[in-house]
Please model this.
Amino acid sequence: MTELQYDQAVKGYFSEKAEAYDDVDLQPYWMLSDRLLATALREDVLSRLPEDFAFLDAGGGTGRWTSFFAEEAPKSTGVLFDLTREMIQVAEAKAERRGFADRVEFRQGDLAEVGQALQGRSFDLAFNFHNVLGFVADPEQTIKDVAALLKPGGLLVSFLPSVWHAAFFNVGIGRLDEAEKALTGRGRFTDTMPDMHLYDVERIEKMHAAAGLELDVLSGFPNLIYPGYQETQLHGSTDQLVDILAGENFDRIFAMENKVRSAPGIAGRGNNLFTVARRPA
Ligand SMILES: C[S@@+](CC[C@H](N)C(=O)[O-])C[C@H]1O[C@@H](n2cnc3c(N)ncnc32)[C@H](O)[C@@H]1O
Model:
């Protein structure tokens, strides 16, 4: 598959999902994962930014995390940059509805060209959450291009798909070919999704060093509960996970997860890897 064909496949995949994408907010597993990410962002990221920071939501999709930053920091301004028009349309409508549309710019484009598209701009914070660096053609180059858009001292925050989790997940549903492929660093969770780049600690460390970034946080989560097949879809949840996360269990599991997410060496166990990196001042 050529790069263009791959981009078309990614765009097609997300354009079909755009309208219902935010239904993931109703799945207990994603609620847990999002609450952990929000907590990590408050502790490790927001506390280090000026009040009126400028952000770049790279592969921002329907604006779930643009909303988070715009609402947590009412003086912030941002750019949501995404490949898929339909995802951006959902994000724009959300910004209008929630009253921060005047502080966020929406740009359609391929992250392969983000340097040219945003030439002359600079950001205190750039972030890419949930598989964005899985889907770009050349993640090592994308990190360099995004790093170049950071102000000195600016932060790059990523939430990346784990190679180990992808292999574990596919073994668990009996898809050994996919598990073997995942261990080569490229794989997927369902047979309708395009293959993604998958990450381990070594690749993450190398790609940040090559982009001249200093890694301040390298963690991973969730660690104690993993998504089932149903959680890879927009609707429905794996029955067992619904039961496990029911009632007060949700808060208890959240508390355990939140405690272990900073444990030394935990990163590789996470379903996703979480990083906070800094462009040296
Ligand atoms: C799984 S969604 C995540 C959306 C959002 N970051 C979130 O956490 O809710 C991945 C997003 O990456 C976008 N994307 C994939 N490849 C891209 C590329 N090469 N350039 C820009 N955006 C891309 C897709 O269009 C999609 O909206």
User: Anything to note?
Assistant: The longest helix spans residues 28-44.
